[in-house]
Amino acid sequence: MSIIFGIRGKSGEVVDARDLSEMGELTKRYSPDGLRINTQGAVGMAFQAFHTHERSQIDDQPTVDCHRNILVVDGRLDNYKELQQILALPGDSSDSAVILAAFQRWGEHCFAKLVGDWSLALWSDQDRTIYLARDHAGTRTLYYKREGECVLWSTALESFFMTGVRYRLDQEYTKRYLSCRPTSSLTPYVGIQVVKAGHYVAIHGERIFETRHWNWIASDRITYKTDLEYEEHFLELFHRSTKRRIVLGSKVLAQLSGGMDSSAIVCMGDICSREDGQTARQFVDTLSYFDDSEPNWNEKPFFELVEAARGKKGFHVDISAKSLNLEWYALDHILESPK
Predict the structure, then answer these.
(1) Is-contact 67 58, C-beta < 8 A?
(2) pTM (predicted TM-score)
(3) What's the mean pLDDT when you consider all of the chain?
(4) What tens digit of pLDDT does each residue of 253-303 get?
(5) Euclidean distance between the first and the last CA atom of the chain, given in angstroms as a whole number
(6) Are residue 194 and residue 231 in the same domain, yes or no?
(7) Which of its termini does the chain have fewer beta carbons within 10 Å around, N or C?
(8) Do 205 and 231 reside in the same domain of the chain?
(9) Residue after which a domain boundary falls, among 212, 244, 267
(10) Do 237 and 120 belong together in one domain?
(11) Cα separations (Å) of 249 from 27, 57, 245, 254?
């Protein structure tokens, strides 16, 4: 995934691009495709690209529209064709261009219309407001820190350490994390918050508003006459969700245990690949763990059956005690060897 980050300073201030460059040094190992920066008075945004498929390469961020709105987005917009048609945009419009056009049409209500895996930061020049938003499932991270009018945001926690500031660990977050309870908007560090999944945060001056843009409770009931119709509907949705994640120009890796869930996902991925004219060699790559010393838990016989059926062998990782002991022995030997 790409890294997005930015700064909003006090009114009348000018964001220094060098500060954004300094932030970028902390996360450049994640994004090999370059850093681009845009500053506009008290607002500065940066985009560190990691292109994972062909469509991502047409996006040139940070994106600025004719209304001086600025956008950076990390992720993938799945319903871009539908939105392009509604907004009368050309078919080669990038995801960021679609989102800015949607914001111009619907304002902050546009976030509810974006289907896909994404997080974004959008500066509305007319409203003088920063919007930080995440998709319905929170597949992409987005953190922020606010002190008065000053706001710092990023998809990576490392960005907040650019000035060498030390943060106290958040004990409430630690308690919730260790007890497997929801962490809400907390992060490991006091003063740094996370935008919740399915929400957007609007920051105007020193005021901040958090709004839910997606609700998991369905308002419509689907009723069919036969079980076959329910099965066909499920398979159509399953096919669509898998197809969206297997896009041209991307390498996809899936974990395969040989169980029902992972096997179904991998095999549906093969169906989608065949529809695009790909052969078994081009199918999704798989990663499987096994332990031959545990006959009641070993998954190797099951994932090997799936591999045989799809005609492609995946990567296998031996996690048995014997294998792990050998690895630790090798590591200890290296550490104890004289230089």
Answers:
(1) no
(2) 0.84
(3) 89
(4) 899 998 999 999 999 999 999 998 888 888 999 999 988 887 777 889 999
(5) 38
(6) no
(7) C
(8) no
(9) 212
(10) no
(11) 24, 10, 11, 16
Residues 206 and 235 in one domain: no
Count the neighbouring beta carbons within 10 Å of the beta carbon of residue 178.
8
Which pair of structure tokens corresponds to residue 60? 């040139």
Backbone dihedral angles phi then psi of residue 237, each to the nearest 5 degrees: -70, -40
Last residue of one domain, picked from the residues 183, 212, 241? 212
Q: Provide the domain limits for residue 147.
A: 3-212
Read off the amino acid at residue 185: S
Q: For residue range 143-199, what is the model confidence (pLDDT) as tens digits?
A: 999 998 899 999 999 999 987 778 999 999 999 999 999 888 899 999 999 999 999
249 and 206 in a single domain? The answer is no
Shared domain for 194 and 275, answered yes or no, is no
pLDDT tens track for 125-147? 999 999 999 999 998 999 999 99
Neighbours of 177 (CB within 10 A): 14
Residue closest to 175 by CA, chosen among 161, 186, 160: 186
**How far is Cα 18 from Cα 208, in angstroms, rounded to an integer?**
27
If you ran DSSP here, which 8-state letter would residue 193 be given? Answer: E
| Domain shared by 46 and 93, yes or no | yes
CATH number of domain containing 245: 3.40.50.620
Considering Cα of 227, then 231, then 236, then 241, what sign does the dihedral take? positive
Amino acid of residue 189: Y
Residue 228 sits at the vertex; the CA angle it makes with 225 and 230, to the nearest 5 degrees, is: 70
Nearest to residue 129, comparing CAs of 103, 158, 155, 94?
Answer: 103
Give the total number of structural domains in the chain: 2
Q: For the domain that residue 99 is a member of, what is the CATH number?
A: 3.60.20.10
Confidence bin at 309 (pLDDT 50/70/90): very high
Are 123 and 70 within 8 A, CB to CB?
yes
The answer to whether residues 65 and 27 touch, using CB atoms and an 8 Å cutoff, is no
